[in-house]
Structure formats: structure tokens, C-alpha cells
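Whiteboard transcription, Tuesday session. T.W. wrote the C-alpha cells on the left side:
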């Protein structure tokens, strides 16, 4: 395969992954904003607390979507590690996302429902960039391509034989 076609294949895979990530993420944004506005409307919670609750609900929704739709073909062998990393990186994304809202609300006094939704949406955007990178890099790890897997297995077999062959040789006697 030429370098150009290999690049084209990688870009095609990345664009499909990004589209699936966007579909799940888009629904997650609707869940996040919906829960946020419901909590703000029906409770007296402060804006950032309402946002944190909504973000946690959306994180749970997104995990299910990412695991069973976007990254369903990825390595599932270490689920505990996956879940732990997912929630660690999601918590960092939560801080990024709600940090924007916190700064707008308490730093600049922008607390109307419209302003809160605008800054919540901007925070979601910044958090999403971080989450996309961290989830695909650390959480939902790609399985090796079949060609790569064969090359790794061949190299491992060669390395396993090398020590045995070295012990069979007798030193030259002078």
C-alpha cells in the first residue's frame, strides 16, 4: 500500500471515528443542557452546581454511547482500567467545562439563563476537545491492525527462538 493510500485510509477511519464521537457527544450535549435547564428551573441550586449535576448525568450517558457505539471495536480486555480512566478524564473535562461557566458567572457576573447556557455550551466545546483526545489515546485503545499483529507475532517468535539457538552452539575449542 502506498503512503498516500495508507494516509487516506487513516484519515477515513479518523473521520468515521470523529463522526461517531460527534453523534454520541451531540446527544450528550442535549442531555447535559436538558438536565442543566431542568435543574435550574425546578430547584434553587446555584448555576455551577446545577451544571455539575447535569455534566455527571451526561458523562454516564456518554460512557454507554462511546463503549457500545463509537468504540465498540476497541480493546475490551481491561474494563476496570477503561472505566477508571474514562471517569478520571471525564472529571478533568468536567472541571474544564464548568470552569468556563464558573468564570463567566462569578468572575463577570453573567448569570442570566441565556448567558449561562452560552457559557455552558462554550465549556462543553473546550471539554470535548480534551475528552476526544484523552478517550481515544488512553481509554478506548485501538486493537492492532491484523497486519501489525502478524508482524508483532513474527518478531516475538523470532526473539523466542534466538536464545534457544544461542544455547545450542558449542564454543569453538582451540
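and on the right, the sequence the group agreed on:
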Amino acid at each position: 500500500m502506498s503512503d498516500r493510500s495508507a494516509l487516506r485510509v487513516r484519515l477515513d477511519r479518523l473521520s468515521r471515528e470523529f463522526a461517531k464521537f460527534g453523534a454520541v457527544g451531540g446527544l450528550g450535549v442535549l442531555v447535559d443542557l436538558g438536565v442543566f435547564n431542568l435543574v435550574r428551573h425546578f430547584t434553587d441550586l446555584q448555576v455551577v452546581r446545577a451544571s455539575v449535576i447535569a455534566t455527571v448525568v451526561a458523562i454516564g450517558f456518554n460512557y454507554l454511547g462511546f463503549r457500545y457505539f463509537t468504540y465498540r471495536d476497541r480493546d475490551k480486555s481491561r474494563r476496570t482500567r477503561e472505566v477508571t480512566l474514562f471517569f478520571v478524564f471525564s472529571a478533568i473535562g468536567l472541571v474544564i467545562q464548568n470552569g468556563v461557566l464558573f468564570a463567566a458567572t462569578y468572575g463577570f457576573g453573567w448569570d442570566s439563563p441565556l448567558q449561562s447556557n452560552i457559557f455552558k455550551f462554550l465549556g462543553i466545546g473546550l471539554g470535548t476537545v480534551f475528552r476526544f483526545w484523552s478517550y481515544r489515546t488512553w481509554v478506548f485503545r485501538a486493537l492492532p491492525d491484523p497486519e501489525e499483529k502478524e508482524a508483532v507475532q513474527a518478531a516475538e517468535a523470532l526473539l523466542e527462538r534466538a536464545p534457544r539457538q544461542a544455547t545450542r552452539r558449542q564454543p569453538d575449542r582451540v
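Someone added at the bottom: The chain has a mean pLDDT of 87.
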